[in-house]
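Q: what does this look like with biotin bound?
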Amino acid sequence: MTVKQQLLALLEDSKGEYISGEDIAGRLSVTRSAVWKAIKSLQSEGYSILAVTNKGYSLSPHTDILSAGAIAKYLDAQGQKLRVEVFKTIPSTNEAVKILATGGEAEGKVILSEEQTAGRGRKGRKFFSPPGTGIYMSILLRPKLSAAESTLLTTSAAAAVALAIERVSGKDTQIKWVNDVFMEGKKVCGILTEASMSLENGSLDYAVLGIGINVAFPADGFPDELTGVATSVYPDSSAQGDLRNRLVAEVLNRFMSYYEHLTDRLFLTEYRQRILSLGGPVLVMKDHIQRKATALDIDNDCRLKVRYEDGDEEYLSSGEVSI
Ligand code: BTN
């Protein structure tokens, strides 16, 4: 760890309290001027660090900058095993993790970024990823699953995100099948799993689980095409404090506990009870044909059971369903 990273970890450990420059220099075994330089550098990155004569330095409790140290504070024992790295800006965290995966990186690497310049969504769409207000995160997994079972990664992640948002914000969430997390009728989170098959045995070689959550309202608002469709966990200015770091950790804690027992479907109850429009009308778009149906149930493989107007029933595993 660099002096700056060690200093940040120290300040985060005693957030809101003052530590003297001398104390910090002693603990990090560096000079006081090296401490001062590192403080200046962190401040220029946007960290709110107060400096008071005779008291020392203190990281404001309202700081909400993503950092591995701040996330680690909220991770449980299992989450602590993950190797979290945070970037300021990156084209796409999914792409970055994919590159690591093909280079042989072990399971458990997590990459986050304050901003993505080429965030990827499903079906070749872009994922709006402005700086400072969202969570853009990708996890490298090497599960023993077949390609067909890989959908469980996405659906269990949706349940993990939904639960994590509820715990941190105290607000309700819903899931639009298959894996979009909604609040108040609008999307707050999208999930994109990119998997690579092993040629030897037909199972997954690796999967990159990418999660994008709109946490605070974007500084310049949502672009026109997302207005009325997307929202944030905190759509007003009520987002305060270490929210994003807490939310990241909560998502990772939840997801890892589901992931450990994925084939037992521990996540299924939470997933099922949040699915929008069960029992209600849906429009199913298949092969460019739209049909009216009723959403009946979610089965153990997270397929959506629908009944069409002519009485035919079908289990859908993917595709476009509108409410
Ligand atoms: C969707 O709703 O279409 C899926 C969006 C997935 C976005 C996340 S943000 C982190 C990760 N990196 C990416 O480029 N995409 C995913």
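The helical segments are 3-13, 21-28, 32-44, 68-74, 93-102, 151-169, 243-260, 268-274. The CA atoms of residues 191 and 211 lie 5 Å apart.
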